[in-house]
Automatic annotation (TrEMBL):
Region (Disordered) location: 51-159
Keyword Transferase: no
Biased composition (Pro residues): 53-86
Gene: WDFY2
InterPro entries (UniProt xref): WD40/YVTN_repeat-like_dom_sf, WD40_PAC1, WD40_repeat_CS, WD40_repeat_dom_sf, WD40_rpt, WDFY1/WDFY2, Znf_FYVE, Znf_FYVE-rel
Keyword Ribosomal protein: no
Record key words, sorted: Endosome, Metal-binding, Repeat, WD repeat, Zinc, Zinc-finger
Cellular-component GO terms for this entry: early endosome
CDD domains linked: FYVE_WDFY1_like
Residue stretches making up the FYVE-type domain: 440-511
WD repeats by residue range: 179-210, 354-387, 397-438, 521-554
Protein name as annotated: WD repeat and FYVE domain containing 2
GO annotation (BP), single: positive regulation of fat cell differentiation
Length: 559
Protein backbone atom coordinates (compact mmCIF):
# COMPACT_ATOMS: atom_id res chain seq x y z
CA UNK A 1 0.00 0.00 0.00
CA UNK A 2 1.37 3.29 -0.87
CA UNK A 3 1.62 5.55 2.09
CA UNK A 4 -0.28 8.71 2.13
CA UNK A 5 1.08 11.71 3.76
CA UNK A 6 -0.82 13.49 6.41
CA UNK A 7 -0.48 17.18 5.97
CA UNK A 8 -1.41 17.99 9.48
CA UNK A 9 0.60 19.29 12.29
CA UNK A 10 2.28 22.10 10.65
CA UNK A 11 4.95 23.06 13.00
CA UNK A 12 5.68 26.54 14.03
CA UNK A 13 8.98 28.05 14.46
CA UNK A 14 10.95 27.92 11.31
CA UNK A 15 8.08 26.58 9.50
CA UNK A 16 5.32 27.88 7.49
CA UNK A 17 5.80 31.48 7.83
CA UNK A 18 7.61 33.84 5.79
CA UNK A 19 11.16 33.22 5.18
CA UNK A 20 13.55 35.90 4.71
CA UNK A 21 16.62 36.26 2.82
CA UNK A 22 16.03 38.96 0.39
CA UNK A 23 19.40 39.27 -1.03
CA UNK A 24 21.55 41.48 1.08
CA UNK A 25 18.64 42.34 3.14
CA UNK A 26 19.92 40.50 6.06
CA UNK A 27 17.67 39.45 8.76
CA UNK A 28 16.20 36.16 8.32
CA UNK A 29 15.29 35.13 11.64
CA UNK A 30 12.38 37.35 12.25
CA UNK A 31 10.99 36.32 9.05
CA UNK A 32 9.80 33.05 10.33
CA UNK A 33 8.34 34.77 13.20
CA UNK A 34 6.29 36.91 11.02
CA UNK A 35 2.70 36.23 10.35
CA UNK A 36 0.75 35.04 13.29
CA UNK A 37 3.29 32.58 14.34
CA UNK A 38 3.18 32.04 18.03
CA UNK A 39 6.17 31.31 20.15
CA UNK A 40 7.75 28.30 21.58
CA UNK A 41 8.60 25.78 19.12
CA UNK A 42 7.94 22.16 19.30
CA UNK A 43 10.33 19.47 18.57
CA UNK A 44 9.99 17.68 15.35
CA UNK A 45 9.47 14.66 17.35
CA UNK A 46 6.54 15.95 19.26
CA UNK A 47 5.20 17.87 16.43
CA UNK A 48 2.29 15.68 15.70
CA UNK A 49 0.45 17.89 18.10
CA UNK A 50 -2.21 19.37 15.99
CA UNK A 51 -1.79 23.01 15.56
CA UNK A 52 -4.01 25.35 13.71
CA UNK A 53 -2.85 25.00 10.25
CA UNK A 54 -1.42 27.98 8.57
CA UNK A 55 -1.59 27.58 4.86
CA UNK A 56 1.72 28.19 3.32
CA UNK A 57 1.64 31.45 1.48
CA UNK A 58 2.06 31.10 -2.17
CA UNK A 59 5.38 32.20 -3.39
CA UNK A 60 6.36 34.28 -6.27
CA UNK A 61 8.28 32.34 -8.83
CA UNK A 62 11.76 31.66 -7.71
CA UNK A 63 13.97 34.32 -8.92
CA UNK A 64 17.61 34.89 -8.95
CA UNK A 65 17.67 38.24 -7.40
CA UNK A 66 20.99 39.23 -8.54
CA UNK A 67 20.74 38.00 -12.01
CA UNK A 68 23.36 36.11 -13.84
CA UNK A 69 21.43 32.90 -13.82
CA UNK A 70 23.24 30.04 -15.34
CA UNK A 71 21.18 27.29 -16.80
CA UNK A 72 22.71 24.34 -15.13
CA UNK A 73 21.14 21.04 -14.41
CA UNK A 74 19.84 20.98 -10.91
CA UNK A 75 22.73 19.95 -8.76
CA UNK A 76 22.71 17.96 -5.61
CA UNK A 77 24.34 18.07 -2.29
CA UNK A 78 26.85 15.52 -1.47
CA UNK A 79 26.90 15.03 2.12
CA UNK A 80 26.41 12.52 4.80
CA UNK A 81 22.93 12.00 6.04
CA UNK A 82 21.72 13.05 9.45
CA UNK A 83 19.59 13.09 12.71
CA UNK A 84 17.61 16.20 13.60
CA UNK A 85 15.30 16.90 16.26
CA UNK A 86 13.74 20.01 17.29
CA UNK A 87 12.30 23.03 15.75
CA UNK A 88 12.70 26.52 16.86
CA UNK A 89 11.01 29.18 18.70
CA UNK A 90 9.05 31.97 17.40
CA UNK A 91 9.13 35.53 18.15
CA UNK A 92 5.93 37.30 18.82
CA UNK A 93 5.19 40.56 17.33
CA UNK A 94 7.86 42.70 15.98
CA UNK A 95 7.09 46.25 16.56
CA UNK A 96 6.97 48.53 13.66
CA UNK A 97 4.83 51.50 13.31
CA UNK A 98 1.24 51.10 14.17
CA UNK A 99 -0.71 51.61 11.07
CA UNK A 100 1.69 49.83 8.89
CA UNK A 101 2.17 46.87 11.05
CA UNK A 102 -1.52 46.44 11.19
CA UNK A 103 -1.79 46.52 7.48
CA UNK A 104 1.00 44.13 7.28
CA UNK A 105 -0.55 41.72 9.54
CA UNK A 106 -3.92 41.58 8.02
CA UNK A 107 -4.66 42.24 4.45
CA UNK A 108 -3.08 39.77 2.19
CA UNK A 109 -2.27 41.13 -1.14
CA UNK A 110 -3.36 44.55 -0.12
CA UNK A 111 -1.87 47.84 -0.89
CA UNK A 112 1.20 48.05 -2.88
CA UNK A 113 3.39 49.66 -0.32
CA UNK A 114 6.80 50.80 -1.00
CA UNK A 115 8.65 47.67 -0.34
CA UNK A 116 10.53 49.18 2.38
CA UNK A 117 12.39 46.06 3.08
CA UNK A 118 10.56 45.02 6.13
CA UNK A 119 11.66 41.62 7.12
CA UNK A 120 8.76 40.40 5.19
CA UNK A 121 9.82 41.89 1.99
CA UNK A 122 13.11 40.24 2.38
CA UNK A 123 11.56 36.94 2.02
CA UNK A 124 10.42 37.93 -1.35
CA UNK A 125 7.23 37.14 0.27
CA UNK A 126 5.89 39.80 2.44
CA UNK A 127 4.72 38.46 5.67
CA UNK A 128 1.03 38.12 5.30
CA UNK A 129 1.62 39.14 1.78
CA UNK A 130 0.53 42.67 2.13
CA UNK A 131 2.29 45.63 0.69
CA UNK A 132 5.76 45.75 -0.45
CA UNK A 133 6.89 46.38 -3.86
CA UNK A 134 10.56 45.78 -3.98
CA UNK A 135 12.53 48.87 -3.69
CA UNK A 136 15.83 48.84 -5.42
CA UNK A 137 17.70 49.25 -2.25
CA UNK A 138 20.54 46.94 -2.52
CA UNK A 139 24.09 47.66 -2.32
CA UNK A 140 25.94 46.68 -5.40
CA UNK A 141 27.30 43.27 -5.04
CA UNK A 142 30.80 43.62 -4.08
CA UNK A 143 33.81 41.83 -4.07
CA UNK A 144 33.96 38.14 -4.20
CA UNK A 145 35.22 38.46 -7.67
CA UNK A 146 37.80 40.64 -6.20
CA UNK A 147 38.58 38.17 -3.54
CA UNK A 148 38.74 35.35 -5.97
CA UNK A 149 41.00 37.33 -8.11
CA UNK A 150 43.10 38.04 -5.12
CA UNK A 151 43.22 34.39 -4.36
CA UNK A 152 44.36 33.55 -7.81
CA UNK A 153 48.06 33.43 -8.27
CA UNK A 154 49.50 36.31 -10.12
CA UNK A 155 46.32 38.29 -10.12
CA UNK A 156 46.78 42.00 -9.91
CA UNK A 157 45.83 43.48 -6.59
CA UNK A 158 42.20 44.48 -6.62
CA UNK A 159 41.51 48.17 -6.61
CA UNK A 160 39.72 48.18 -3.30
CA UNK A 161 41.96 45.65 -1.72
CA UNK A 162 42.74 47.71 1.30
CA UNK A 163 39.13 47.81 2.30
CA UNK A 164 37.87 44.51 1.15
CA UNK A 165 40.64 42.08 1.51
CA UNK A 166 41.70 42.09 5.10
CA UNK A 167 44.42 39.49 4.76
CA UNK A 168 46.09 38.05 1.76
CA UNK A 169 45.21 34.45 1.22
CA UNK A 170 48.16 32.24 1.49
CA UNK A 171 46.48 28.92 1.97
CA UNK A 172 44.39 27.49 -0.76
CA UNK A 173 43.16 24.19 -2.14
CA UNK A 174 45.69 22.23 -4.16
CA UNK A 175 44.55 20.78 -7.45
CA UNK A 176 45.49 17.11 -7.36
CA UNK A 177 43.94 15.82 -10.52
CA UNK A 178 41.76 16.58 -13.49
CA UNK A 179 39.57 13.72 -14.58
CA UNK A 180 38.46 14.25 -18.15
CA UNK A 181 36.73 12.31 -20.85
CA UNK A 182 33.01 12.70 -20.35
CA UNK A 183 31.08 13.80 -23.40
CA UNK A 184 28.59 15.69 -21.30
CA UNK A 185 28.41 17.11 -17.82
CA UNK A 186 29.10 14.76 -14.95
CA UNK A 187 25.99 15.31 -12.88
CA UNK A 188 27.34 13.53 -9.84
CA UNK A 189 30.51 11.85 -8.75
CA UNK A 190 32.07 10.57 -5.56
CA UNK A 191 35.56 9.88 -4.37
CA UNK A 192 36.01 6.16 -3.75
CA UNK A 193 36.93 5.67 -0.13
CA UNK A 194 40.42 4.37 0.52
CA UNK A 195 41.20 4.24 -3.18
CA UNK A 196 42.49 6.71 -5.62
CA UNK A 197 39.33 6.50 -7.61
CA UNK A 198 36.18 8.28 -8.63
CA UNK A 199 32.72 7.02 -9.56
CA UNK A 200 30.88 9.31 -11.93
CA UNK A 201 27.51 9.42 -13.63
CA UNK A 202 27.02 11.70 -16.57
CA UNK A 203 24.49 13.26 -18.85
CA UNK A 204 26.29 11.32 -21.60
CA UNK A 205 24.63 8.18 -20.11
CA UNK A 206 27.83 6.70 -18.83
CA UNK A 207 28.65 5.32 -15.44
CA UNK A 208 32.40 5.26 -15.00
CA UNK A 209 34.72 4.18 -12.29
CA UNK A 210 38.03 5.93 -12.72
CA UNK A 211 41.10 4.54 -11.01
CA UNK A 212 44.50 6.10 -10.81
CA UNK A 213 47.00 4.30 -12.99
CA UNK A 214 50.75 4.05 -12.79
CA UNK A 215 50.92 6.93 -15.21
CA UNK A 216 49.37 9.08 -12.52
CA UNK A 217 46.24 9.57 -14.64
CA UNK A 218 42.72 8.43 -13.86
CA UNK A 219 41.37 5.95 -16.42
CA UNK A 220 38.03 4.18 -16.42
CA UNK A 221 38.10 0.67 -15.06
CA UNK A 222 34.36 0.55 -15.61
CA UNK A 223 32.59 2.22 -18.48
CA UNK A 224 28.93 1.38 -18.58
CA UNK A 225 26.32 2.89 -20.84
CA UNK A 226 22.84 3.38 -19.40
CA UNK A 227 19.66 3.61 -21.49
CA UNK A 228 19.10 7.22 -20.48
CA UNK A 229 21.17 10.15 -19.18
CA UNK A 230 22.30 9.64 -15.58
CA UNK A 231 21.06 12.48 -13.43
CA UNK A 232 22.15 11.45 -9.95
CA UNK A 233 23.59 8.67 -7.84
CA UNK A 234 24.07 7.38 -4.34
CA UNK A 235 27.02 5.19 -3.44
CA UNK A 236 27.20 3.17 -0.26
CA UNK A 237 30.83 2.27 0.43
CA UNK A 238 30.12 -0.54 2.91
CA UNK A 239 28.05 -2.55 0.49
CA UNK A 240 29.52 -0.96 -2.65
CA UNK A 241 25.97 -0.49 -3.78
CA UNK A 242 25.54 2.09 -6.48
CA UNK A 243 22.08 3.50 -7.10
CA UNK A 244 21.77 5.57 -10.24
CA UNK A 245 18.91 7.89 -11.09
CA UNK A 246 18.09 8.27 -14.75
CA UNK A 247 16.48 10.90 -16.86
CA UNK A 248 13.67 8.50 -17.74
CA UNK A 249 12.60 8.18 -14.10
CA UNK A 250 14.18 4.80 -13.41
CA UNK A 251 16.56 4.05 -10.58
CA UNK A 252 19.08 1.32 -11.42
CA UNK A 253 21.01 -0.47 -8.76
CA UNK A 254 24.39 -2.15 -9.13
CA UNK A 255 26.97 -3.74 -6.88
CA UNK A 256 30.56 -2.87 -7.60
CA UNK A 257 33.21 -5.55 -7.22
CA UNK A 258 35.83 -5.14 -4.54
CA UNK A 259 38.49 -4.20 -7.02
CA UNK A 260 36.14 -1.71 -8.73
CA UNK A 261 36.60 -3.42 -12.06
CA UNK A 262 33.12 -4.75 -12.50
CA UNK A 263 29.56 -3.78 -11.71
CA UNK A 264 26.69 -6.21 -11.42
CA UNK A 265 23.10 -5.13 -11.98
CA UNK A 266 20.81 -5.77 -9.04
CA UNK A 267 17.45 -4.26 -9.80
CA UNK A 268 15.53 -1.39 -11.30
CA UNK A 269 12.89 0.73 -9.64
CA UNK A 270 10.31 2.51 -11.76
CA UNK A 271 10.47 5.33 -9.28
CA UNK A 272 9.38 8.43 -11.16
CA UNK A 273 7.51 9.60 -14.22
CA UNK A 274 10.40 11.76 -15.29
CA UNK A 275 14.01 12.58 -14.46
CA UNK A 276 15.20 11.48 -11.04
CA UNK A 277 16.68 14.52 -9.34
CA UNK A 278 18.09 13.09 -6.10
CA UNK A 279 18.71 9.67 -4.57
CA UNK A 280 19.71 8.57 -1.11
CA UNK A 281 20.28 4.98 -0.19
CA UNK A 282 19.78 4.35 3.53
CA UNK A 283 21.52 1.16 4.50
CA UNK A 284 20.17 1.05 8.05
CA UNK A 285 16.58 0.92 6.85
CA UNK A 286 17.14 -0.64 3.44
CA UNK A 287 15.39 2.33 1.90
CA UNK A 288 15.99 4.13 -1.34
CA UNK A 289 14.75 7.69 -1.11
CA UNK A 290 14.36 9.69 -4.27
CA UNK A 291 12.87 12.81 -5.77
CA UNK A 292 11.97 13.45 -9.36
CA UNK A 293 11.04 16.08 -11.85
CA UNK A 294 7.52 14.71 -11.47
CA UNK A 295 7.51 16.57 -8.12
CA UNK A 296 7.32 13.32 -6.23
CA UNK A 297 9.33 12.24 -3.26
CA UNK A 298 9.25 8.45 -3.06
CA UNK A 299 10.83 5.77 -0.98
CA UNK A 300 11.33 2.15 -1.89
CA UNK A 301 12.41 -0.93 0.00
CA UNK A 302 15.76 -1.96 -1.42
CA UNK A 303 15.18 -5.57 -0.33
CA UNK A 304 11.85 -6.12 -2.04
CA UNK A 305 12.10 -3.34 -4.59
CA UNK A 306 8.61 -2.28 -3.56
CA UNK A 307 7.49 1.29 -3.40
CA UNK A 308 6.69 2.13 0.21
CA UNK A 309 5.27 5.60 -0.12
CA UNK A 310 5.31 8.94 -1.77
CA UNK A 311 4.70 12.61 -1.18
CA UNK A 312 4.02 15.37 -3.66
CA UNK A 313 6.43 18.25 -3.25
CA UNK A 314 5.45 21.80 -4.05
CA UNK A 315 8.09 22.06 -6.73
CA UNK A 316 10.86 19.96 -8.23
CA UNK A 317 13.26 18.93 -5.50
CA UNK A 318 16.96 19.50 -5.81
CA UNK A 319 18.11 18.80 -2.27
CA UNK A 320 17.53 15.66 -0.23
CA UNK A 321 18.87 14.74 3.18
CA UNK A 322 17.83 12.17 5.74
CA UNK A 323 18.27 11.79 9.45
CA UNK A 324 18.54 8.10 10.08
CA UNK A 325 18.07 8.33 13.81
CA UNK A 326 14.77 10.17 13.78
CA UNK A 327 13.71 9.28 10.24
CA UNK A 328 13.17 12.82 9.16
CA UNK A 329 13.69 13.66 5.56
CA UNK A 330 14.55 17.15 4.34
CA UNK A 331 13.51 18.06 0.83
CA UNK A 332 14.63 21.34 -0.70
CA UNK A 333 12.82 22.41 -3.82
CA UNK A 334 12.94 24.96 -6.57
CA UNK A 335 10.32 27.13 -4.91
CA UNK A 336 12.87 27.86 -2.21
CA UNK A 337 11.14 25.79 0.41
CA UNK A 338 12.50 23.01 2.57
CA UNK A 339 9.92 20.41 3.52
CA UNK A 340 10.49 18.18 6.52
CA UNK A 341 8.69 14.86 6.58
CA UNK A 342 8.67 12.18 9.20
CA UNK A 343 8.83 8.79 7.53
CA UNK A 344 7.30 5.60 8.79
CA UNK A 345 7.59 2.30 7.04
CA UNK A 346 4.84 3.07 4.57
CA UNK A 347 3.55 6.52 5.33
CA UNK A 348 4.82 9.95 6.14
CA UNK A 349 3.74 13.03 8.02
CA UNK A 350 4.46 16.59 7.11
CA UNK A 351 6.32 18.06 10.05
CA UNK A 352 7.02 21.56 8.88
CA UNK A 353 8.47 23.67 6.13
CA UNK A 354 11.28 26.19 6.22
CA UNK A 355 11.11 29.23 4.05
CA UNK A 356 13.96 31.60 3.88
CA UNK A 357 15.27 31.72 0.35
CA UNK A 358 14.14 33.98 -2.43
CA UNK A 359 15.45 31.56 -5.01
CA UNK A 360 15.18 27.83 -5.39
CA UNK A 361 16.98 25.54 -2.99
CA UNK A 362 19.84 23.95 -4.89
CA UNK A 363 21.50 21.92 -2.16
CA UNK A 364 21.00 20.68 1.36
CA UNK A 365 23.49 19.43 3.86
CA UNK A 366 22.66 17.96 7.25
CA UNK A 367 25.04 17.83 10.16
CA UNK A 368 23.69 15.11 12.42
CA UNK A 369 26.00 16.02 15.27
CA UNK A 370 25.13 19.67 15.74
CA UNK A 371 21.71 19.04 14.21
CA UNK A 372 22.06 21.83 11.79
CA UNK A 373 20.66 21.95 8.30
CA UNK A 374 22.35 24.04 5.66
CA UNK A 375 20.45 25.08 2.57
CA UNK A 376 22.07 26.61 -0.47
CA UNK A 377 20.10 28.56 -3.00
CA UNK A 378 20.12 30.19 -6.37
CA UNK A 379 19.60 33.44 -4.42
CA UNK A 380 23.37 33.20 -3.73
CA UNK A 381 22.94 32.60 -0.03
CA UNK A 382 23.31 29.74 2.39
CA UNK A 383 21.08 29.52 5.43
CA UNK A 384 22.04 27.58 8.50
CA UNK A 385 18.90 26.31 10.24
CA UNK A 386 19.88 25.55 13.80
CA UNK A 387 17.48 22.81 14.72
CA UNK A 388 19.57 21.42 17.56
CA UNK A 389 19.88 24.81 19.21
CA UNK A 390 16.13 24.84 19.73
CA UNK A 391 15.83 28.57 19.57
CA UNK A 392 14.70 29.04 16.04
CA UNK A 393 17.98 30.53 15.03
CA UNK A 394 18.66 30.76 11.35
CA UNK A 395 21.86 32.30 10.16
CA UNK A 396 22.37 33.69 6.73
CA UNK A 397 25.70 33.30 4.97
CA UNK A 398 26.37 35.70 2.11
CA UNK A 399 29.60 34.89 0.39
CA UNK A 400 28.76 34.03 -3.19
CA UNK A 401 28.20 36.16 -6.23
CA UNK A 402 26.38 33.45 -8.08
CA UNK A 403 23.99 30.70 -7.21
CA UNK A 404 25.15 28.26 -4.59
CA UNK A 405 25.28 24.89 -6.28
CA UNK A 406 26.58 22.45 -3.72
CA UNK A 407 27.35 22.15 -0.03
CA UNK A 408 29.46 19.90 2.08
CA UNK A 409 30.21 19.96 5.76
CA UNK A 410 33.48 18.97 7.39
CA UNK A 411 32.30 17.83 10.77
CA UNK A 412 35.68 17.36 12.36
CA UNK A 413 36.66 20.97 11.80
CA UNK A 414 33.19 22.46 11.74
CA UNK A 415 33.70 24.04 8.37
CA UNK A 416 31.11 24.39 5.70
CA UNK A 417 32.18 24.21 2.09
CA UNK A 418 29.85 25.96 -0.31
CA UNK A 419 30.39 26.02 -4.04
CA UNK A 420 28.95 28.42 -6.55
CA UNK A 421 27.92 28.27 -10.15
CA UNK A 422 30.72 30.72 -10.88
CA UNK A 423 33.32 28.32 -9.54
CA UNK A 424 33.71 30.03 -6.20
CA UNK A 425 34.47 27.78 -3.26
CA UNK A 426 33.83 29.34 0.13
CA UNK A 427 35.03 27.63 3.28
CA UNK A 428 33.09 28.91 6.26
CA UNK A 429 34.26 28.64 9.81
CA UNK A 430 31.15 27.49 11.64
CA UNK A 431 32.97 27.23 14.93
CA UNK A 432 32.29 30.86 15.76
CA UNK A 433 29.35 32.44 17.48
CA UNK A 434 27.33 33.83 14.63
CA UNK A 435 24.50 36.31 14.92
CA UNK A 436 21.22 36.61 13.22
CA UNK A 437 20.68 39.68 11.16
CA UNK A 438 18.36 42.24 12.70
CA UNK A 439 14.82 42.77 11.66
CA UNK A 440 14.27 45.77 9.46
CA UNK A 441 12.43 48.53 11.20
CA UNK A 442 9.66 50.52 9.62
CA UNK A 443 9.55 54.24 9.80
CA UNK A 444 8.09 57.13 7.86
CA UNK A 445 11.21 59.14 8.37
CA UNK A 446 14.92 58.51 8.81
CA UNK A 447 15.57 57.14 12.25
CA UNK A 448 18.81 59.08 12.40
CA UNK A 449 18.11 62.54 10.98
CA UNK A 450 14.31 62.47 10.97
CA UNK A 451 13.96 63.51 7.32
CA UNK A 452 10.72 62.20 5.85
CA UNK A 453 10.75 59.31 3.42
CA UNK A 454 9.17 59.97 0.07
CA UNK A 455 5.77 58.47 0.77
CA UNK A 456 5.37 60.59 3.86
CA UNK A 457 3.54 63.44 2.12
CA UNK A 458 2.29 64.96 5.31
CA UNK A 459 5.65 65.50 6.88
CA UNK A 460 7.12 66.55 3.56
CA UNK A 461 4.41 69.20 3.28
CA UNK A 462 4.60 70.28 6.89
CA UNK A 463 8.34 70.60 6.94
CA UNK A 464 8.65 71.65 3.30
CA UNK A 465 11.18 68.93 2.78
CA UNK A 466 11.77 66.61 -0.08
CA UNK A 467 11.08 62.96 0.63
CA UNK A 468 14.01 60.61 0.67
CA UNK A 469 14.45 57.00 -0.19
CA UNK A 470 14.51 54.56 2.63
CA UNK A 471 17.43 52.28 3.30
CA UNK A 472 18.22 49.91 6.10
CA UNK A 473 21.31 49.43 8.16
CA UNK A 474 22.23 45.75 7.97
CA UNK A 475 23.66 45.82 11.44
CA UNK A 476 20.98 47.53 13.53
CA UNK A 477 18.06 47.28 11.10
CA UNK A 478 17.13 50.95 11.41
CA UNK A 479 15.35 52.73 8.59
CA UNK A 480 17.72 55.41 7.45
CA UNK A 481 18.23 57.77 4.58
CA UNK A 482 21.09 57.44 2.15
CA UNK A 483 23.03 60.24 3.73
CA UNK A 484 22.95 58.63 7.15
CA UNK A 485 24.09 55.30 5.71
CA UNK A 486 26.74 56.21 3.22
CA UNK A 487 29.32 53.77 4.56
CA UNK A 488 29.78 50.10 3.88
CA UNK A 489 31.24 47.35 5.97
CA UNK A 490 31.49 43.62 6.02
CA UNK A 491 29.84 42.05 9.07
CA UNK A 492 31.21 38.51 8.97
CA UNK A 493 29.56 37.31 12.15
CA UNK A 494 26.23 38.20 10.63
CA UNK A 495 27.18 36.29 7.53
CA UNK A 496 28.02 39.35 5.46
CA UNK A 497 31.45 38.56 4.16
CA UNK A 498 30.98 41.28 1.59
CA UNK A 499 30.45 44.89 2.39
CA UNK A 500 26.90 45.97 3.00
CA UNK A 501 25.13 49.18 3.91
CA UNK A 502 25.43 50.24 7.52
CA UNK A 503 24.40 53.43 9.27
CA UNK A 504 27.08 55.85 10.31
CA UNK A 505 26.94 55.00 13.98
CA UNK A 506 27.15 51.27 13.35
CA UNK A 507 30.04 51.88 11.01
CA UNK A 508 31.89 53.60 13.79
CA UNK A 509 31.04 50.89 16.25
CA UNK A 510 32.24 47.95 14.17
CA UNK A 511 35.77 47.07 15.19
CA UNK A 512 38.45 45.68 12.95
CA UNK A 513 38.23 42.44 14.86
CA UNK A 514 34.57 42.20 14.02
CA UNK A 515 35.48 42.74 10.42
CA UNK A 516 37.84 39.77 10.38
CA UNK A 517 36.59 37.32 7.78
CA UNK A 518 35.12 34.05 8.95
CA UNK A 519 35.42 32.43 5.57
CA UNK A 520 38.04 31.91 2.91
CA UNK A 521 37.40 32.30 -0.80
CA UNK A 522 38.82 30.18 -3.56
CA UNK A 523 38.38 29.72 -7.26
CA UNK A 524 37.90 26.27 -8.75
CA UNK A 525 38.08 27.76 -12.23
CA UNK A 526 35.11 25.85 -13.47
CA UNK A 527 31.39 26.31 -13.02
CA UNK A 528 30.54 23.82 -10.35
CA UNK A 529 27.49 21.60 -10.60
CA UNK A 530 28.32 19.11 -7.90
CA UNK A 531 30.83 18.45 -5.12
CA UNK A 532 31.79 15.58 -2.88
CA UNK A 533 34.02 15.89 0.15
CA UNK A 534 36.07 13.00 1.47
CA UNK A 535 36.61 13.96 5.07
CA UNK A 536 39.15 11.25 5.83
CA UNK A 537 41.67 12.61 3.35
CA UNK A 538 40.37 16.15 3.14
CA UNK A 539 39.79 15.79 -0.59
CA UNK A 540 37.16 17.68 -2.46
CA UNK A 541 35.76 16.61 -5.80
CA UNK A 542 34.22 19.29 -7.97
CA UNK A 543 32.36 18.56 -11.17
CA UNK A 544 31.88 21.39 -13.61
CA UNK A 545 29.90 22.41 -16.64
CA UNK A 546 33.20 22.02 -18.51
CA UNK A 547 32.64 18.22 -18.20
CA UNK A 548 35.74 17.98 -16.07
CA UNK A 549 36.06 16.54 -12.59
CA UNK A 550 38.70 18.10 -10.39
CA UNK A 551 40.14 16.62 -7.24
CA UNK A 552 41.44 19.03 -4.66
CA UNK A 553 43.46 18.63 -1.54
CA UNK A 554 41.57 20.86 0.87
CA UNK A 555 43.79 20.29 3.89
CA UNK A 556 45.42 23.71 3.59
CA UNK A 557 42.04 25.32 4.17
CA UNK A 558 39.97 22.65 5.90
CA UNK A 559 41.87 21.86 9.04
ZN1 LIG B 1 19.04 60.43 7.67
ZN1 LIG C 1 22.99 50.76 12.22
Amino acid sequence: MEGACVPGAVLRGFGNSVGAGRKWAGGLAHAYWAANVPPPFLGFLTSSTTLPEVPPPSRPPAATPCGRPRPLPAPPPSSPPPPPVVAPACNPDRGGFGARSRERGVVPGARPGYGRGSPASRSGQPESLSQLVPVPERSPQPSSAVRLAAAAPGAPPPPMAAEIQPKPLTRKPILLQRVEGSQEVVNMAVIVPKEEGVISVSEDRTVRVWLKRDSGQYWPSIYHMMPSPCSCMSFNPETRRLSIGLDNGTISEFILSEDYNKMTPVKNYQAHQSRVTMILFVLELEWVLSTGQDKQFAWHCSESGQRLGGYRTSAVASGLQFDVETRHVFIGDQSGQVTILKLEQDNCTLVTTFRGHTGGVTALCWDPVQRVLFSGSSDHSVIMWDIGGRKGTAIELQGHNDKVQALSYAQHTRQLISCGGDGGIVVWNMDVERQETPEWLDSDSCQKCDQPFFWNFKQMWDSKKIGLRQHHCRKCGKAVCGKCSSKRSSIPLMGFEFEVRVCDSCHEAITDEERAPTATFHDSKHNIVHVHFDATRGWLLTSGTDKVIKLWDMTPVVS
